[in-house]
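Figure caption, in words: inputs first, then the predicted bound structure.
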Amino acid sequence: MGSVYENSVFAFSTGNSDENDSQYKGHFSNYRESKREVNTAKWTKVLLIVFAVSLVFALGGLCAVRIQYVSVSAQLSAQETNGTIMSRQLDKLTANFTTVRDHLHINELLMKELTANYSRVKEQLSISEETVRKLSRFNQSSGCAICAIHWTHSGEKCYYFSTVKMNWTQSRDHCVTKGGHLVIITSQAEQEFLTSNVKETHWIGLNDLDTEGRWLWVDNQPLSQTEEFWMKRENGVSEPDNWTKQHVDGEDCASLGHPDGETDFWTDAYCFEEKRFVCEAAAAV
Ligand SMILES: *[C@@H]1O[C@H](CO)[C@@H](O)[C@H](O)[C@H]1NC(C)=O
Ligand SMILES: *[C@@H]1O[C@H](CO)[C@@H](O)[C@H](O)[C@H]1NC(C)=O
Ligand SMILES: *[C@@H]1O[C@H](CO)[C@@H](O)[C@H](O)[C@H]1NC(C)=O
Ligand SMILES: *[C@@H]1O[C@H](CO)[C@@H](O)[C@H](O)[C@H]1NC(C)=O
Ligand SMILES: *[C@@H]1O[C@H](CO)[C@@H](O)[C@H](O)[C@H]1NC(C)=O
Ligand SMILES: *[C@@H]1O[C@H](CO)[C@@H](O)[C@H](O)[C@H]1NC(C)=O
Ligand SMILES: [Ca+2]
Ligand SMILES: [Ca+2]
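Bound structure (2-acetamido-2-deoxy-beta-D-glucopyranose present):
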């Protein structure tokens, strides 16, 4: 096999070059040496070709690897980006979670405070209930009643002495808005209590607006059924005198005292006059 190959290479060489022919004929003694050189050149070519082919394959491989590397690195960077986005979202979620947890914590604290406040309020309520019960027992035992602020207690009633002046109908309505009525005087003691507490004339809950000379209390009780404390004059006209000199309609509303300054007895007066007034209410229990 080796010889065939050698011959063919030799044939190829002789057929190719006259120079080689002459060399062959002229330097037959160098035949083996030449043959070896030719062989070496042939081998070099073969190797070169093999090398080139290998190089081509190697480059191809490199390219393939490079392409693969690029695609892999693109994927990697995409995943990295994805990772960054996801980690950011995770951060946001964590932040939200922290916020929610903080809010929950605050709510919990608020809840605790509210509960504490609620039990405190409940405690205070039970204390005040206890106070009311005690007061009630005290009230029952001593007969002492409770009046609203600015009202004066006497007997089983509360009295309000106004500081403003109004006409009789306004006074009557004002006492009602304050939870009472214009005072109804039913006893000497009540009359004395009132006169000792006023320094000028005040409206009381008595009038003869409906029928002249028929005096009625604001609860529609006729005066004829209770004691009366009209002013009596030794030398002159006693009250009620239905004075018509200043107004033709006469005087239809009763007041404690007289504009002159007396306060001990009642006088009838013009209902449109503006006076202070006394309200009365039942004592709270
Ligand atoms: C990012 O990750 C999500 C969840 O794993 C996945 O559904 C999505 O396809 C990914 N995107 C990229 C560009 O890798
Ligand atoms: C965080 O909470 C805000 C409002 O409370 C909301 O708009 C946002 O979408 C939330 N973020 C995430 C990642 O849940
Ligand atoms: C609880 O009561 C205190 C004092 O009475 C008050 O300052 C606080 O605001 C109350 N808290 C709530 C949640 O109502
Ligand atoms: C009081 O005066 C009015 C008006 O003048 C009169 O109508 C009435 O009869 C008088 N009453 C008395 C008791 O004098
Ligand atoms: C009292 O005053 C009011 C308001 O000015 C008035 O409407 C009312 O008629 C007066 N009453 C009398 C009796 O003058
Ligand atoms: C308080 O005393 C008044 C007057 O004596 C009485 O009418 C009332 O019933 C008493 N209140 C209580 C709660 O006992
Ligand atoms: Ca009259
Ligand atoms: Ca009079």
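Strands lie at 152-154, 157-161, 181-182, 202-207, 216-217, 253-256, 266-269, 276-282.
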